[in-house]
Here is the input.
Amino acid sequence: MGASPQHQDRTGRRDILIAFICGGVVAAMIGASFAAVPLYSWFCRTTGFGGTTQVAKAAPKETLARTITVRFDANVNAALPWRFVPERNTIDVKLGEVVTVYYAVTNESARKTVGQAAYNVSPPTVGRYFEKINCFCFTEQTLAPGEKRDMAVVFYVDPKLAKDADENDVNMITLSYTFYPVHQADAGQVGAGESAATGKTGRL
Here is the structure.
């Protein structure tokens, strides 16, 4: 004996409700996944999580006597045919002192290539105190075949570090960069502003 029309109607409405709820859950999960990336990026910039450095618009108002050694690390992904080295391996800086350091990069291939640097500092907990005023890592870098370029990073270590009891033992910070390929460009099509650099530049 088949189910009554009323029973079938209730079952149909229940199935529609369940399908609607499941669809809403899926939509919410998809929305959360898209929101997770910018939220994670904001969280890292705000807290310095994972050694994420900060971006400053101006120099600090004070300089302290406490000195920290900053070590510079340079790496290149195997897929990018570049040579990338700092002009110096370490520098001693006072808290609040604005410092400019250069890195040299050379495209060792016979084609135009594009890369961008990922970066962090260690120990990771000092990321919130490492402030960059200017950096080549903010934008993509395009190099012509064989081109060599000097690229600057302008930074300071926030004097607020001295007030953080958890960082009392910090006497060295390592600033690390790794260049990754962005895309493969056609060789020989270097536009205006992409010719070989002739001197040291700031933000590139």
The radius of gyration is 25 Å. The longest strand covers residues 172-184. The first helix runs from residue 5 to 47.
